[in-house]
Write a structure and sequence with these properties.
Layout: E1 2-3, E2 8-10, E3 20-24, E4 31-36, E5 44-46, E6 52-61, E7 75-82, E8 88-97, E9 108-115, E10 122-129, E11 138-148, H1 150-160, E12 167-171, E13 174-178
Antiparallel strand pairs: 1-4, 2-3, 3-11, 4-10, 5-10, 6-9, 6-11, 7-8, 7-10, 12-13
Length: about 180
């Protein structure tokens, strides 16, 4: 896979493999990179409408980064949705974090969940820095991972959706509830 025009490859700073993707903030606008097939065609993953996906990657802040404030919600891991006809449907964010020296010199996993829209059939994977990232601040991204976790996510929601009211009694490892 390749990177779109905003990102560059770096073979010196990588989590694994041969290289990582490097983005450098400009303090003005979004610096966006996407995984692409042939340097011009976005690499789209098949998705399902209303499905939940887990996304992660590893990020590394350049040792020379000095930004300690003002970078709130400036590092993003997103999927851009398209329908079957490749028409734009929407953008979903799995991770939105703060640019800071906390990432300097250490690989850190960033991750999150997102739920696709009703018309989503495919999506491309993007990562970006917002204008809140100071000019010259460099971040490296590596080892992207996306998984459909709809079933597991639904079961976790169902497991935590139980509401007990009144007095609860534990009997033979079974919880029962009674109201007053």
């Amino acid at each position: 896979l390749y990177l779109s025009a905003s990102g560059t490859y770096d073979s010196d700073t990588k989590y694994s493999g041969s290289y990582s993707a490097k983005l450098v903030g400009d303090g003005v606008g979004y610096i966006v990179a996407s995984l692409v097939v042939d340097k011009t065609t976005y690499y789209k993953v098949q998705t399902r409408p209303n499905a939940t996906y887990y996304m992660e990657c590893w990020i590394y802040g350049d040792a020379g980064n000095a930004q300690t404030t003002g970078g709130a919600n400036s590092i993003h891991l997103i999927m851009v949705e398209y329908d079957e006809a490749n028409a734009y449907v929407g953008t979903r964010t799995a991770y939105s974090g703060t640019a800071s020296t906390a990432f300097n010199g250490v690989w850190t996993r960033i991750s999150g969940y997102l739920t696709m829209g009703a018309g989503a059939a495919k999506a491309d994977i993007r990562f970006r820095l917002s204008s809140a990232v100071d000019d010259g601040e460099a971040y490296y991204f590596d080892d992207f991972y996306v998984a459909d976790v709809t079933e597991a996510y639904s079961k976790a929601d169902a497991a935590t959706a139980v509401t007990l009211t009144g007095t609860q009694t534990l009997t033979n490892k079974t919880i029962s509830g009674s109201s007053n």
